[in-house]
Amino acid sequence: MTRPRIMSKRHWPILLAVVAVCTVFAYLNALGIYLSSNRGTPWGYTLFFELTNWYLYILLAPFVIRLCHRFRIDRENLTKTIIAHVPIALLFTIAHSVLLTVITNVPVYGTRELLRFVKSGYPVLIFDFLFSVVVYVMILSLTHAMDYYKQYREEELTASELKAQLAQSQLQALKMQLHPHFLFNTLNSISALQMEDTDAAQKMTARLGDFLRLTLDNVGSQKVTLKQEMEFLSCYLDIERVRFGRRLTVNVNIEPDALDVSVPNLILQPIAENAIKHGIASQIAPGRIDISARVSDHSLKIEVSDNGPGLRNNGTDPREGMGLTNTRERLERLYGRDYKFEMDNGAEGGLSVKLQIPIQTGIAGC
């Protein structure tokens, strides 16, 4: 069985600081006494007395710290612990006075003359007693301050970790909502094609398998590279191209240096789905989706536009369903206010969705 430590490691730095402070005070007090006596008091003995006086506090401090932990002062047992510290403080002061008297006076007066010194020097002993009480209170206060600060930091860290875990759980829940939403829509399309075009239905089923495989490979990742995200999106758009045939054209313009930038996993699929639903499926004429991405001013700027009807009522119709609402929430949780997500009518008609996110090093996992 290991013996309990008098002091924990976290108290050693403060103890070393106390040693330095006590050493400085010892030299200053010794110098003051030496000069005030017109150098009548021997310097060696004066310095020895002051160093002994202050270093005895350091010697006794670990025991006081240990007892402070055992009799911790808090609101629940304030009166009880204060009463417990009164005899401890008395023992501390008595121990310091006795040790100081023995160490500094026995070599000078001898054991026979020690009692006479105690009787004649009681004013000095009383002063030392009162000063020791002050030192005890200082050690007590410092120890409690350190413990409360450590407890505060631990609680703050725990709260921060819980907050991060909650945010991660919420992000994962938002991301997982996309899977059944997309899957149900695709299965409905496959079911409809089974009766009209078997080959098209088989192609859509194959691309759906590719999409699900890529998705499962990154099921625990909140972020992927833009290159990986475009692979997901390509699978989705291939499925939609089978569905719409020549009515859907997709143009992609991605700058090479943008491909390695990390983006939220499955962030583009809801935007493309919104463009197809409102910009392509709602019209008989051929539809077009343009996707571009570039790096500018330490940010990744992505734009997804279509040639559909755009926003109605002067841009007051947001056309936002579950997918885009989910996208906004994910961006806000991942980047706070450091992102842009804008929907507006394009210069040549249709809808333009612009996304701007900060470039962050590395790819966040689960």
Provide tags for this entry.
Heat Shock Protein 90, two-stranded antiparallel ribbon, 366 residues, alpha+beta, disordered C terminus
What does this structure look like?
There is one protein chain. Helices cover 64% and strands 12% of the residues. By secondary structure, the protein is α+β, with helices and mostly antiparallel strands. It folds into 2 domains: 9-158, no CATH class; 197-358, Histidine kinase-like ATPase, C-terminal domain (Heat Shock Protein 90, 2-Layer Sandwich). Strands 2-4-5-7-6 form a 5-stranded mixed beta sheet, with helices on one face. The chain has a two-stranded antiparallel sheet with strand order 1-3. It is rod-shaped. The two termini are 42 Å apart.
Query: Per CATH, which architecture of the largest domain?
Result: 2-Layer Sandwich
Mean pLDDT over all positions: 77
The number of E-state strands comes to 7
- SSE pattern: HHHHHEHEEHEEHEE
Shape from CA axes? rod-shaped
Protein structure class: alpha+beta
Rounded to the nearest angstrom, the distance between the terminal CA atoms is 42 Å
The biggest beta sheet is recorded as: 5 strands, mixed
Brief sketch in words of this structure:
This protein has 366 residues and is an alpha+beta fold.
Q: How are the SSEs ordered, and which strands pair?
A:
Blueprint: H1 12-36, H2 43-70, H3 78-120, H4 122-194, H5 198-217, E1 223-225, H6 226-244, E2 248-254, E3 262-264, H7 269-280, E4 287-296, E5 299-306, H8 322-335, E6 340-345, E7 351-358
Parallel strand pairs: 2-4
Antiparallel strand pairs: 1-3, 4-5, 5-7, 6-7
